[in-house]
Write a structure and sequence with these properties.
Blueprint lengths: L11 E9 L4 E8 L5 E8 L3 E6 L5 E9 L4 E5 L2 E3 L7 H13 L1 E13 L8 E12 L15 E6 H9 L6 H15 L7 E2 L12
Parallel strand pairs: 4-9
Antiparallel strand pairs: 1-2, 2-3, 4-7, 5-6, 5-10, 8-9, 8-11
Amino acid sequence: MTIRDTSEEWEIRATQTPFVGNKTSVRTDDVVMPGGVVVTRDYQVHPGSVAVLALDDAGRVLVIRQYRHPVRQKLWEIPAGLLDVPGENPLHAAQRELYEEAHVKAEDWRVLTDVYTTPGGCDEAVRIFLARELSEAEGERFEVEDEEADMELERVPVPDLVRGVLAGELHNNCLVVGVLSLVAAERGDGLDALRPAHAPWPARPFEA
């Protein structure tokens, strides 16, 4: 049996945007349910994100420790960031984030997986890339600020990350999904069988 998510949109009787922030907003829709009842649904409107699982030749993943105020924790994460411009090529955004957060570049890029982070309350879509053949980026390091000024950078073996995920010690969505997807891909058809870096992304269409 083959299963896959499909596009569908139920009737919206009314919509409003009670809050608009710097990067995201909150929308309220009156949605018609299958039985005809109209219910209110509030959700965050998000531009979309990219994340990079950067794997070096020693089988280690580049991870960053960063303070996340909503959960009041410092989380170990993989480099990630917003799609700053509507229709932006996600590969270009991922390459930018890897450079800015880790001062690293990669020669081999693949799509590891695509996810909706919290589809019950937010429309954020994230494309997680696998980056290999890593090297130090040229030029000056990107000047960081705010939470990023306190970041720590490490390279951690994949088995250690898997253990941390399953032990409930690592919680960042993109790290958890990325690491487990990496292991599944390695045990399946192999990393070279992953989708190409410019594979279509219906959740956030772009021009290659």
